[in-house]
Amino acid sequence: MSAWIAGALALPAFTALSLAMERHQDQVFGRALSVNTTVAWRLTGIALLGLSLASCLAAGWSGAVAVTAWVGVLTLGAMVTGWTLAYVPRHLLRLAGVSLAAAALGFVFSS
Amino acid sequence: MRPDGKPEGLRQSMSWLHTWSGLLLGWLLYAVFFTGTLSYFLDEITDWMRPELHQSIPGPQTAALALATMQKLTPDATSWTINLPGERQTAVEANFRQPGAAAGRAGNQRVQLDAGTGEVLQPRETRGGSFLYRFHFELYAMPRVWGRWIVGIATMFMFVAIISGVITHKKIFTEFFTFRPRKGQRSWLDAHNATAVLALPFHIIITFSGLLLLMFMLMPWGIDAVYNGDTQKYFAESRGRPAAAAGASGERGDAGRAGRAQSAEPAQLTAIAPLMAAAQARWPDRGVGTIVVQRPGTPQATIELREQGARALVRGGGERLLFNGVTGAPQTPPEARATSSAQAVSGAMMGIHLGRFADPALRWLLFLSGVIGTVMAGSGMVLWVVKRLPERRKLGRTPRGHRLVEVLNIAAIAGLSVATAGYFWANRLLPVDIAQRADMEIRSFFVVWGLCLLHAMLRPHRRAWLEQLWLAAIAFAALPLLNAATGGAALPAAMLHGQWSVAGFDLVALALGVLHGFAAWKLGASGAIALPQRAASGAGMRIPRPVAQSPEKQQ
C-alpha cells in the first residue's frame, strides 16, 4: 500500500519542482512567478519527495529495497510530469492535485 | 581531434567518447538490456512456455497432495523441497535428493506436479525464460567465459557511456522535464536525455551491479592473492561455511542415511494441514512458499515451512518455521548467521540486479526502469543516424558507414523484437516430441533474427523499420490467441483461476504488441505528412513539421 502512496506523492512532488523552473511556469501559468512563490514551490516539492521516501521506508521493506523502490517511483513520477508538460501542460496542476488527493486517501485508509 | 587544431574542451572530448563508446557496443548493450529486462519475468516466461503446466490450478489441498505424491514417488529421498504455486508459478515444483546424491545443485532431481491433483506433469522440453536470461550475460553458441567477457567489456563501456553522457549533457537540470515532440533530432535527443536522466540511479545501479556480478571473472586477482587461487574456498567462506565443511550438504545426506539405518521402523509423516494452518495464521499476507522435508519417512524427519516471497534482498532473510516431522511439534530453527555489512551491501546490489525478491510492485518498477533503459539505448543509436542526416543531405548520398549503422539499428532494435516473438511462436508451433526441441526453439530465435538482418539490408530504410515494427506488433499481440489455441490456459480463464504467471505473460505480450504498433503507426504517420519533403526527411525517421509552439529558443 505504502508503495502506491509513494508513487502518488512523487507526481505532485515533481510537479512542484518543475513549477519552480521558469520555463515550466511559462507553460503552466503563462508567466514567470515571483521569487518567493518559486521558492515555495521548490520547498513543497522537496517536502513531498521526503514524504514519498518516508512512505517507501514505511512499506515494510528492508532499507535497501525501500530506497530502490523509491528510485523507481521517482523515475515514474518525473516521467509522467515530463510527458504532461510536453503534451498537456495546462492539465499538470489538476493531475498533480488528483494524485495528491489519492495519496491522502490512501494514507487515511491504510492507517 | 578538432580539424582546426584548437584544443578541445572537456565536454567535447566527452561527447566524442560518449558517441563512439555508445555506438560501438550499443547494439550488444541494447540486446543485453532487452533480454535482461524480460528476465525480470523469467519464471512467468518459463511457465507460459510449458502449457502442459497450465492445467494445474492450486487448491486448499495442494500441499497435502504434493506430499502424498512425493511419498509414492521417492520414499527413500534424503530431502524434499517443494515449491508451492504462487503468483509466479502455477504448478508445484518439487526437488528431491536421493541418498548419496552429489553435493550441491547437481544432486537435485526435479519433478513438476499438478497443484489440483498431485499428478506428475510432463512439460515439453524448453529452455523457457532461462535462454533469454542466460543470453543477457553469456550470449550464445560460444564458450560461456567468452560470452561473459564480451558482456563484461560491454558493461564497462556502458559505465563509460553513462559517465561521459552526464558530463556531455549541457542542461541536465534546466531540461530535466523537457521533451519537445515532433522536432526531429531535438526530440530524439530529448527522449534520449529524459530516459537517461530520469532513470539514472537505476542505470548506475544496474550497470555497476552487473559489473559486480561478473567481477569474479573480470578481476580475480584479489581472491587469487588472499586465497592462493582457491576460489572454491572463497565462495564457501562468503556463504558462511567454514572452508573445511565446503561439502556440507553432501554430508547432511550421509547423516540422513545413517539415521535411516538406525531406525528399523519407518515413521509416518505427520499431516501437513495443521502445520500449514499455523503458518498461514503467522503469515496472513503471503502464506507458505516452500516446504522442506528432511529425512522423510524416518523418526528424525523435520518439516520446515518458508514464507512465500520472503527471499528478501539480502539472501536468506525470510522467516521460517520448523516442525518435528512425525509429531508435528514446533522446533526452534537454527540461528541464522549474521551477515557482515560488506556482504549485505554486495548482496543487496546483486539482489537488485537479479530482482531476487518477489514483491510484484517492485518487480514492475524494475521492469519499467528496464524498459526505459532499453528505450535509452535504442534512442541513442537512432540519434546517431538522425544527427548525421544534414551531413548526408549535403553530401547528396548515404555514406557506407551510415547505411551500415542504419541496417544494424533496424536488426538490433526491431529485429530483436521480432526474433523474441518468434521464439515464443516456435515454442508452440514446433512438434512436442521432436529431438533436441529446446535447441530448435533457440535456433528459431536466431534464424528469425538473421532474416530480420537480411530484410533490413534489402529493403529501403524506412520501409524496413515499418515492416519489422508491424510484424513484431502483430506477433506479440497474437501470442495470447496462440496460447489459447495450442493448449495453454486462455487469458480469461487464467485470470479467473488466479494463474498470474500465465495471465501476466499474455498481458505483457498484448502491451508489447500495442507498444510496437504505436511506434510503427507514429513512424508511418510522420511519413504521410512529409511526403513532399521526402528528400529532406532522408531516412524518414521522422519529419520536421512546421511547429510554431514552444516559447523556448532553439539551441
Number of domains of chain B: 3
Largest sheet of chain B: 8 strands, antiparallel
Q: Which percent band covers the strand fraction of chain B?
A: 5-15%
Global mean pLDDT of chain B: 82
Form type of chain B: globular
What does the average pLDDT of chain A come to?
A: 91
Helix % of chain B is 55-70%
Question: How many strand units of chain B?
Answer: 8
- Tell me the β content of chain A: under 5%
- Give the strand order of the largest sheet of chain B, numbering strands 1, 2, ... along the chain: 4-3-2-1-5-6-7-8
- The H-and-E topology of chain B, N to C, reads as HHHEEEEHHHHHHHHEEEEHHHHHHHHHH
Distinctive features:
heterodimer, A: 111 residues, mainly alpha, 83% helix, B: 555 residues, alpha+beta, eight-stranded antiparallel β-sheet, 21 helices, 8 strands
What is the secondary structure topology, with strand pairs?
The complex is a heterodimer of chains A (111) and B (555).
Chain A: H1 2-18, H2 22-29, H3 35-57, H4 63-87, H5 92-110
Helix pairs in contact in A: 1-3, 1-4, 1-5, 3-4
Chain B: H1 10-38, H2 42-48, H3 62-73, E1 79-83, E2 92-97, E3 108-113, E4 120-121, H4 129-138, H5 144-168, H6 185-198, H7 200-218, H8 221-227, H9 231-238, H10 248-262, H11 272-282, E5 288-294, E6 302-307, E7 320-324, E8 330-331, H12 341-354, H13 360-387, H14 389-395, H15 400-429, H16 437-458, H17 461-477, H18 479-485, H19 491-496, H20 500-529, H21 534-537
Antiparallel strand pairs in B: 1-2, 1-5, 2-3, 3-4, 5-6, 6-7, 7-8
Helix pairs in contact in B: 1-4, 1-5, 1-13, 1-15, 2-4, 2-20, 5-7, 6-13, 7-12, 13-15, 15-16, 15-17, 16-17, 17-20
